[in-house]
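STRUCTURE:
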C-alpha cells in the first residue's frame, strides 16, 4: 500500500469516532442540534484573507477571489472577506455563499426545496471511503474523473436530479439514508472530533496527579510484581500496553518512589484494589420502584427467567496492521490497553459465573451477547470471540508464535497475552452443571472495520472511471500485509499524524482478513473443537434463517422463547452499516411490532435486545421507544455500545406500559463485568422484579493476565478522566449504585399472571 492510500485511511479514521465506547463515543445528542456555533466575526475596514471551515468536506476545491485551493482534511479553506466562496468538484459547482469562518451545507445549497437533499446524496455518492458518518473525502482521481466540463443542477426535484446525476456519475445515487447519516455526522459527531482537536494543546498542559491513597506493604509488593509483568508483556521493548497508555496521554509513568510523600502508580493500584468490592456482587442492592411498589411481604413467588448479559468484548488482534493504537490521544476510543487481555478476561469471567451459580444454587437459563464481538473486524477476532464462549483451545496470537515472558506461571496459567490456553466455555463442566445456551446480537464493530468503515466487494466507480478497488481488498491488503504501523509522538498536530508513523516488519497472517456481518453470522454455526460444541447451534442465527430467510447484512433480527415459554426475546440488528450509529427502517419496525403483538397475544413477557440504545439509533430510535411503550408485557430493553452501566426507566402512559432500559458495559473497558438478571413474579401482588447483579471476574492470583488487564482498564479511565476527557472516567463507565445491583420492579399484565 502506498503512502497516499495510507493518508486517505488516516484522514478517514481521524474524522471518525473509532467505534463504541463512552470515551470518544459517537452518541447522538437528544436535540440533534449542531453544537458547533459560529464565532462572531470582528469588524474589518479593509478586505483581508481569513481561514474558514466547511466541516466534514475534505479535498474539495474552493475559490474566493484570489484565494483558491483544496479543503484540508478537516474542511479548512481560505477566503477573502470581500468575496463569496465557491466549492466545486471538477467542473461541478456545489454552491456559493457569503464567506465566513464556519460554513454548512445549508449555506451553500440552492434555494430549491430539494437542493439540500440533492447535494447531500451527491456528496455521499462521491465519498472515497463510502463512510458518510466520518465526513466526505474526495481525491485528485475523483476530481480528474469529474472533469472541468462536468455540470450538475442541484436546484430541481429529487426525481429529476436522480436521473441527471446518475447519468453523469454512471453509477447509482446513494439513498436518503446515506444523506441522513451525513447530516447526523455534521451536526453531532464531527463537531465532537473538532473540539477534541482544538483542545489538544490544552490537554498537554493539564496537570496530572496520582491519588494519595495509603498503601500497605503487601499491596505495594503485589503492585510492583504486576507492573514488572506488564512491562515485559510486549514483543517490542518499550511498547507494552502500560507504557503506551502513558505515552498516548502524555503522562509521566512513576511506578514507585523512595519519597513517602510522593504518590505513584502504586497508590493508584491500591485505590483500584479497594474499589473492586464496592461495585461487585457484594455491593448493596437498590430498590427501584418507578413502575411498581415492592410488595410489603413476599407472596407466592415464581422464578420466571435467569439470564446472563454480556457486552462489547471487542476482541482485538493486537498485531494486525489495521491497529490504530497510535490515535489514542486524539480519539480515546481508538485504543484500549486491555485489548490483548480480553480472551483471558472472558474465560475468567465464565469461571466466576460458574462459581456464582454454585454459590446461589440456581443455574443460568441462557446468555445473550449484545454486540461488538470483534473490534478491528478480522476473522481472527471473530473466531477468538466465538471459541472463548464455546470453549476449547485458544491461541490469541496472530502471525508468529510470540512468548515475551517464557513459559507459564507455576500453576500452568498463561503469564503473557500471547500464551495459548483452554477456555471452559459456557457448556456444563460436570454432570451437575447445565449448559448455558448463548445468543448473539450484532454490533457496529461486527462487520465494519474499526466499527466505522463499510466492507464492500465492488470497485468504486465514478464518471465511468474506476477510482479505487473494493474496500474489502483495500483493507485486506493492509490487514494481511507483512508490516504494521508503530510509534506516535503525542505533541504532533492531528493532521500531521502520518509523519509520526514508522513501518515495522511483522509475520503476515491471512486470518487477519476482514469479515462482513453475514460472514460473522455464518461463523456462529462453526465449532472449532467438536468436543466443545455449545448451544444452540448458530447462537440465534438459525432463527434468522427461519424467520428472515437468509443471513443478510443489517437484517439479522430474530426472536425466540425462554425454556419455560414465559419470556419472549426479540433480538434486533440495529447496525446501519455506514458508521458506528444505529438505525431501523419502517419495515424493521413493522417486524418488531408484529413480534410484540404475538407475544402479547400469547401472554409472554418480552425482553428486547439491541446493540444500540434508542439515543444512538439515529433513524427511528424515538419510534422504537414509542412502540415498546405500547405493550404492557415489555419489561426490559437490553442495550450496549457506550461501554457504560446504566439503567433507565422508560415511562409509558401508565405504569404498566413502562419498561426498563438496561445498558451494560464492556469487557474491554472498566469495570469489565457480566450482568446477571434474575426475573421473578409475585403472583399475589402481581408485581414482578428484575434482580440485576454485577459480577467481577476473579482469578487465583492478582498476577494473572486477566487481572492485569482489568487494572489497565482502570488505569485507562483514570488517565482519560484527568487528561483526555474530564468527567468521562471511572464513575461514568461503572455507573451509579442504582445502575448496577438493583431490584427493578414492574407490573405484570393479567394475561401473563393467568399463565402461572
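SEQUENCE:
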Amino acid at each position: 500500500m502506498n503512502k497516499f492510500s495510507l493518508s486517505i485511511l488516516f484522514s478517514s479514521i481521524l474524522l471518525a469516532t473509532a467505534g463504541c465506547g463512552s470515551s470518544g463515543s459517537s452518541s447522538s445528542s437528544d436535540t440533534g442540534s449542531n453544537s458547533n456555533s459560529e464565532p462572531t466575526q470582528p469588524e474589518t475596514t479593509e478586505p483581508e484573507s481569513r481561514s474558514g471551515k466547511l466541516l466534514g468536506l475534505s479535498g474539495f476545491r474552493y475559490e474566493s477571489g484570489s484565494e483558491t485551493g483544496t479543503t484540508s482534511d478537516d474542511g479548512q479553506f481560505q477566503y477573502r472577506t470581500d468575496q463569496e466562496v465557491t466549492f466545486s468538484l471538477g467542473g461541478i459547482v456545489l454552491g456559493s455563499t457569503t464567506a465566513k469562518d464556519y460554513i454548512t451545507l445549508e449555506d451553500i445549497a440552492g434555494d430549491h426545496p430539494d437542493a439540500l437533499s440533492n447535494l447531500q446524496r451527491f456528496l455521499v455518492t462521491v465519498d472515497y471511503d463510502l463512510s458518510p458518518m466520518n465526513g466526505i473525502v474526495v481525491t485528485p482521481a475523483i476530481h480528474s474523473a469529474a472533469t472541468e466540463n462536468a455540470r450538475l443542477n442541484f436546484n430541481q426535484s429529487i426525481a429529476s436530479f436522480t436521473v441527471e446525476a446518475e447519468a453523469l456519475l454512471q453509477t447509482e445515487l446513494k439513498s436518503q439514508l446515506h444523506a441522513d447519516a451525513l447530516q447526523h455526522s455534521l451536526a453531532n459527531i464531527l463537531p465532537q472530533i473538532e473540539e477534541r482537536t482544538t483542545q489538544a494543546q490544552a490537554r498537554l498542559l493539564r496537570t496530572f496527579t496520582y491519588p494519595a491513597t495509603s498503601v500497605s506493604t503487601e499491596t505495594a509488593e503485589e503492585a510492583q510484581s504486576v507492573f514488572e509483568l506488564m512491562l515485559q508483556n510486549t514483543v517490542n521493548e518499550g511498547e507494552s500496553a502500560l507504557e503506551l497508555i502513558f505515552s498516548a496521554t502524555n503522562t509521566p509513568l512513576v511506578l514507585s518512589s523512595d519519597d513517602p510523600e510522593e504518590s505513584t502508580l502504586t497508590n493508584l493500584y491500591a485505590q483500584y484494589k479497594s474499589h473492586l468490592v464496592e461495585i461487585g456482587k457484594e455491593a448493596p442492592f437498590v430498590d427501584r420502584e418507578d413502575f411498581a411498589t415492592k410488595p410489603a411481604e413476599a407472596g407466592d413467588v415464581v422464578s420466571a427467567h435467569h439470564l446472563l448479559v454480556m457486552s462489547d468484548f471487542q476482541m482485538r488482534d493486537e498485531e494486525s496492521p489495521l491497529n490504530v493504537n497510535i490515535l489514542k490521544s486524539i480519539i480515546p476510543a481508538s485504543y484500549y490497553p486491555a485489548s490483548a487481555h480480553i480472551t483471558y478476561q472472558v474465560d475468567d469471567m465464565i469461571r466466576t459465573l460458574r462459581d456464582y451459580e454454585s454459590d446461589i444454587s440456581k443455574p443460568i437459563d441462557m446468555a445473550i451477547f449484545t454486540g461488538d464481538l470483534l473490534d478491528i473486524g478480522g476473522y481472527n477476532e471473530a473466531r477468538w470471540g466465538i471459541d472463548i464462549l464455546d470453549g476449547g483451545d485458544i491461541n490469541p496470537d496472530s502471525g508468529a508464535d510470540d512468548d515475551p515472558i517464557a513459559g507459564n506461571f507455576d500453576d500452568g496459567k498463561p503469564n503473557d497475552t500471547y500464551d495459548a490456553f483452554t477456555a471452559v466455555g459456557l457448556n456444563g463442566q460436570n454432570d451437575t452443571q447445565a449448559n448455558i445456551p448463548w445468543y448473539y446480537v450484532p454490533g457496529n464493530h461486527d462487520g465494519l472495520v474499526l466499527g466505522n468503515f463499510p466492507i464492500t466487494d465492488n470497485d468504486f466507480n465514478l464518471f465511468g472511471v474506476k477510482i479505487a478497488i473494493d474496500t474489502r481488498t483495500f483493507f485486506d491488503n493492509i490487514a494481511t500485509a507483512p508490516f504494521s504501523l508503530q510509534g506516535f509522538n503525542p505533541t504532533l498536530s492531528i493532521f500531521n499524524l502520518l509523519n509520526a508513523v514508522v513501518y515495522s516488519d511483522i509475520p503476515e497472517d491471512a486470518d487477519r482478513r476482514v469479515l462482513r456481518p453475514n460472514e460473522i453470522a455464518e461463523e456462529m454455526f462453526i465449532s472449532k473443537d467438536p468436543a466443545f460444541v455449545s448451544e444452540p447451534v448458530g447462537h440465534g442465527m438459525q432463527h434468522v434463517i427461519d424467520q428472515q430467510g437468509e443471513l443478510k447484512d443489517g437484517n439479522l433480527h430474530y426472536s425466540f422463547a425462554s425454556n419455560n415459554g414465559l419470556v419472549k426475546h426479540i433480538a434486533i440488528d440495529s447496525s446501519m452499516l455506514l458508521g458506528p450509529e444505529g438505525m431501523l427502517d419502517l419495515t424493521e419496525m413493522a417486524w418488531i411490532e408484529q413480534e410484540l403483538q404475538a407475544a402479547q397475544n400469547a401472554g409472554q413477557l418480552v425482553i428486547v435486545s439491541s446493540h444500540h440504545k434508542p439515543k444512538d439509533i439515529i433513524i427511528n430510535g424515538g419510534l422504537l421507544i414509542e412502540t415498546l411503550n405500547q405493550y404492557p408485557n415489555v419489561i426490559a430493553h437490553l442495550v450496549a455500545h457506550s461501554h457504560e452501566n446504566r439503567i433507565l426507566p422508560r415511562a409509558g402512559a401508565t405504569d404498566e406500559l413502562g419498561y426498563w432500559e438496561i445498558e451494560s458495559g464492556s469487557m474491554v473497558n472498566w469495570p469489565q463485568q457480566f450482568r446477571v438478571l434474575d426475573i421473578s413474579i409475585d403472583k399475589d401482588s402481581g408485581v414482578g422484579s428484575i434482580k440485576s447483579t454485577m459480577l467481577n471476574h476473579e482469578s487465583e492470583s492478582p498476577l494473572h493476565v486477566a487481572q492485569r488487564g482489568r487494572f489497565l482498564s482502570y488505569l485507562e479511565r483514570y488517565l482519560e478522566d484527568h487528561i483526555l476527557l474530564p468527567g468521562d472516567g471511572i464513575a461514568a463507565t461503572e455507573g451509579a449504585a442504582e445502575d448496577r445491583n438493583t431490584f427493578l420492579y414492574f407490573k405484570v399484565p393479567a394475561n401473563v399472571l393467568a399463565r402461572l
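REMARK: The radius of gyration is 27 Å.
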